[in-house]
Amino acid sequence: MAETTSIADTQDIELRASIDRSLRHPVMFFFTSGAVWLALAIVLGLVASAKKHSPEFLECFSFLDAGKVDAAHMSALVYGWGAQAAFGMIIWFMARLSRKTCTASGTILFAGHLWNFGVMVGVGFILAGEGSGVAYMEFPMPVWPVLFFAFILITVWSLIQFQVRDAGHVYVSQWYLLAAMLWFPWVFITAWFFVFVLDGNPVMVAGIASWFKATLFLLFFLPVALASAYYLAPKVTGGPVHSYNLALFGFWALAFLGPWAGMQKLMGAPIPQFLPYAGAAAMVLILIPAIAVGVNILKTVIGQTDVVAQSPSLRFTAFGVVAFVIFGVLSCGLHTTNALKMVQFSYTGYGMDILGLYGVFSLCAFGAIYFIVPRITRREWLSRRFIRWHYYLSLYGVAAIVVCAIVGGVMQGAGIEDVSQPFGTMSRFASSYGWGVTLAWGFLLFANLFFCLHLLLMWARLGRRSSHPTLLKSHHASNPHGPDGEVDNYDTPTASSAH
Amino acid sequence: MDHTRDNPLKRFTAFWVALVLVTAFGIAGIVLGPFFGGGDKEDPAYTQKSAERLGVRRQVENASEKALNREALDKALAAGSKSLLSSKPAKGARPVPAEQPADAAKDSTKDQPAK
Q: Which letter does DSSP use for residue A260 in this model?
């Protein structure tokens, strides 16, 4: 009996190793090129933020005008970093959960290059002043079909893996991954058609762009982040998900509320009035899935504080889930009718975007990357200091951006609403918070430099050849990582579970 | 490998089903677009309204043209120009908003031809 179990375990380890081998190049390509785009997006974000309070900053470069650099910053962050990190996570998680090796890694790698080419051309056009001017869809019209074609080539294999998986349990992570893979084409094609192809009313184009912006986060980035959290929390702690029913409720709550969000940005515009109110109501109710997911994940890891403290993956993931709960609470407070009137034309929206994209998605993605990369490169992370710096600078950086942008936005909104004051008073209110945002982007730039360098070294297979994962707390007096040796016991509970 | 679920035929079918799924909204958009006026670049309501608005504009322009007394306008302009030409420059009563910057004064001497 014991011998049969041992054979099954060996076969299982071999299968996982073969899945990791089959996906090594595409996944590492997505993560490293995404990290480089993230560094660029942060530099552009720093310049864009500086231009808000000091318009004369770098004014000698016309391609860095405030409008261009702001659009290029968000596009690089969303499509350069966010989408590529999501692709890497989707293809690896789906292959592992469906227990199928990837047979199309060459095609995925080609599609990855195509995606990067599209983003590069799009950002180039934005900086040249040829952007579309539609928020979150700033790339010129011909770039979008290229991106969509690349998306299909990247994700279609994961859909096949899910379809031909061995019969049995469908994991919570798989619900979210499958949903993200099907929701993305829906919001992408719908927005592209209505904004660029069909000759619609310009006010509705603005409305659809706002809908796209909200749903891209709620129906693509967020599900991928939650899939990662639902995978890593039980995997690293070694326990089951706290409540399957709560997970089911959280998933369907997001699926039901997500598609309604977005139009609240057009409150007061000449569109049917139920649309902004429906959007605002959906954003208020996002608190429900946020609490459901937050309680479920945190209850899964609670009581395992040592594991959370040691594991980089779990620490980033736990912070990402807490950020989602904060997102839900702030969303609930900032989308009431009175609050919307005040913050509609202020920095607050930017603060919420960064909280969602960086605070929730990116931190969960970092957690996933710290888990996946040692498995596919068969090397351990080189430096726990780099990881720690990355963690703390990200934590403080993103918190500072969100606080400054949201509080500054509320002050700005109050200034706009106060008709007894000249318009300049509002600018003075906002400008000091703008300095705070610029400083915070500086923190994130440093954080990402540590991360990017570390990841590139891992890609070059210069990581540690050790059977001990790099944890954030030391257990060995002589060597903080334990004795070095060949990596040979991945996926045994002792070595891998604490990542 | 569980051959009842994973075989080349199943993978081939899954590939095409997945393609149809992810492009379903695009296909729906192409099919349904023309029914919602998507392919129609000229909005008839707008065209009709613009004809009306152009008519109103023509009426306003004609009325303005009729109301304009060019002779009186020329006379008034000529009188104004004459008095402006005949007047001599004098110190104004309003305060000067700011002093000329020292750098600008230096720069202005640079452009003068050498004596």
A: G
List CB contacts (< 8 A) between B18 and chain A: 156, 159-160, 163
- Judged by CB atoms closer than 8 Å, whether chains meet at B33 and A197 is answered as yes
Distances (CA, A) of A176 to A181, A225, A298, A376: 9, 9, 18, 23
d(Cα A84, Cα A4) in Å, to the nearest integer?
41
pLDDT tens, position by position, A174-192: 999 999 999 999 999 999 8
Give the type of residue at A456.
Answer: L
Residue in the block written with tokens 């199943």: B10
Identify the CATH number of the domain in which residue A349 sits: 1.20.210.10
User: B5 and A159 in contact by Cβ < 8 A?
Assistant: no
Contact in structure between A474 and A316 (CB atoms under 8 Å): no
Residue-range domain boundaries for chain B: 8-83
CB atoms within 10 A of CB B20: 10
Distance CA A137, CA A144 (A): 9
Which structural domain range is residue A79 located in?
13-467
On whether ipTM exceeds 0.85, the answer is no
pLDDT digits (tens, 9 = 90+) for A68-104: 999 999 999 999 999 999 999 999 999 999 999 998 9
Q: What's the whole-model pTM score?
A: 0.82
- Total domains present in chain A: 1
